[in-house]
Amino acid sequence: MDDRTYTADAEPGEEVTVAGWVHEIRDLGGIGFLILRDTAGRIQVKFEKEEMDDDLVATGLDAARESVISVTGVVEEEPRAPTGVEVSPEAIEVVAPADTELPLDPSGKVDAELSTRLDNRTLDLRREEGQAVFEVRAEMLRAVRTAFRAADATEINTPKIVATGTEGGTELFPITYFGQEAFMNQSPQLFKQLVAGSNVERVFEIGPIFRAEEHNTPRHINEATSIDFEGAFCDHEDAMDVCEDVVVAAYEAVADNCGRQLEALGLEAFEPPETPFPRLTYEEAIERINATGALDEQLTWGDDLPTEGEKALGDDVGGHYFITDWPAEIKPFYIMNHEDGERSTGFDLMHPRMELVSGGQREHRREHLIEGFERQGLDPEAFEYYTKMFRYGMPPHAGWGLGAERLLMTMLDLDNIREAVLFPRDRQRLSP
Ligand code: AMO
Questions:
Q1: Is the distance from the beta carbon of residue 221 to the nearest atom of ligand 1 less than 6 Å?
Q2: Which residues of the chain fall short of a pLDDT of 50?
Q3: Which end of the chain lies in a sparser environment, N or C, as judged by fewer CB atoms within 10 Å?
Q4: What is the structure's pLDDT at 24?
């Protein structure tokens, strides 16, 4: 539709054709108003019944809410209209009528359950807030890509159908691949390392990860989007620097370019997090958690941090922070340990509400790596394609994985991670 004008661009004095959805109709007797909504905003269409053709008035004022219509008319200044202008219509076409009964109210006046919203995502995304979340998501990912390019990283895409898993602790989804057992990939971990070991050196990927986790929580989904980085000649400190830059760049871009969306979400006071992010060792973290008294039992070396512990520490720190030097025994085989063999180079980036990132320096010494596989109960033979490349000059390297939905969820203070995904996959939801 070449001759279509967005509602936000309609200037007084022009003849325009605007097209979009019927947001609202107010019939006041001699006069009636139709609010037309498109991606750019809304515009009022005014019907003066005495002066206008009856068919034209009926087509406009009898249209069911959410029908798609196209209106041609002259734009006039009208200070009382919501956007200061209105269209005096000359022609109206109902392009696609809507049923009069809607499963949810896109004007947002009536609240709907999350499950009803997810079942009817198209209608849900017609709500200003729904659209805003995904506009922010797009801007966040654009900024992440730009920040990676500025850090000399190359975007890669690695297979999502794989022969073996890598992330212990979460289950795999099995599939049948030409009669052979295969899995949906839990992480691009091994592939990104294999590419970082080539001349490409610094890589990033933004893609799906699949986790057959049983738990049903507001911060877990079974198909998530992982933002991954891997850099040759990087140690864990360098990897944390890149991580901090990427996260801050995402916030800054959203602050600079998403004013309208933030306003729709009630986040006018949005600000990028303060830097540098504090770096606490695991030992300091458990001491601080113990000191808050939030847990019934004191944490000791080697314990995973329970959710309430993370929350208490998050409240104590008050912003983004890293936890470094995790016990070697609770980090995966590919993470390099410090010389003492007790502590690892593994780190997590935490938002006060939850974990956003895991990363670390990688074990690039083949013999140590193979020992790690065995310690974790994995068969090194099954990973031959990976360990083999460590024979041909694998540089020291480090990287991390950041959950895109968790970044968006914490950035926009969403209650449930499902709000940050268009069509979430969880224990109950496989469609749409
Ligand atoms: P990890 O398993 O900690 O590390 O995952 C990295 C980040 O991905 C996000 N994430 C999830 N988000 C929503 N739902 C899930 N089920 C889910 N699982 C993970 C989180 C998490 O912090 N290979 C390593 C990364 C690395 O070392 O480079 C890994 O996958 O935000």
A1: yes
A2: none
A3: N
A4: 95
- Contact status, residue 387 vs residue 369, Cβ threshold 8 Å: yes
pLDDT for residue 214: 87
Question: Is any ligand 1 atom within 6 A of the Cβ of residue 85?
Answer: no
CB 228 within 8 A of CB 192: yes
**Ligand 1 closest atom vs CA 334:** 27
Interval between CA 406 and ligand 1 midpoint (Å): 10
Q: Which residues are catalytic?
A: 211, 213, 219-220, 355, 358, 406
pLDDT at 378: 87
Per CATH, domain 7-96 is 2.40.50.140 = yes
CATH of 122-277+319-420, one of 3.40.109.10, 1.10.760.10, 3.30.930.10, 1.10.10.10: 3.30.930.10
The pLDDT of residue 169: 61
| Domain range annotation of the chain | 7-96, 122-277+319-420
pLDDT at 170: 65
